[in-house]
Write a structure and sequence with these properties.
With 123 residues, this protein is mostly helical. The chain has one domain. 87% of the residues lie in helices and 0% in strands. The chain has 5 helices and no strands. The protein starts with a helix and ends with a helix.
């Protein structure tokens, strides 16, 4: 399970890097999730990552932190379908209206978060 958590953490880092280098490319990728199936796919990815973190926490470099992040991500995945398409669109419109600098800042956080998480769960 640690390998899955590691790979998903690197995936988050790669998405962050893409968003940092080209915010509109990341925005276009996120727009593809603007369907009921897309929202469920995002929810499933979050649930898988949360479970992977929970199971890999005992062998990680920071078990307590990885466990807490796993719970947070798991809960986020479980409530994602409750947001609905309209709220998802409003969030995307709000995010994109702030401009590329704002989007790069958030992408930078995703890059850093993904790399730190990958380091914490690295097998």
């Amino acid at each position: 399970m640690a390998i899955l958590a590691f790979v998903l953490s690197l995936f988050v880092a790669v998405l962050g890097a893409v968003g940092f280098l080209s915010p509109m490319t990341l925005f276009g990728m996120v727009r593809r999730f603007e369907t009921p199936a897309g929202i469920y796919a995002a929810a499933i990815l979050r649930v898988i990552m949360g479970v992977a973190l929970l199971f890999s926490a005992p062998v990680s470099r920071s078990p307590a932190i990885v466990r807490v992040l796993g719970v947070i991500i798991l809960v986020a995945g479980l409530i994602t379908p409750l947001f609905g398409i309209n709220r998802f669109r409003r969030i995307l419109n709000w995010w994109s209206a702030r401009g590329p600098i704002f989007m790069r800042i958030w992408a930078g956080f995703a890059l850093g978060f993904g790399l730190l998480l990958a380091y914490a769960v690295m097998p």
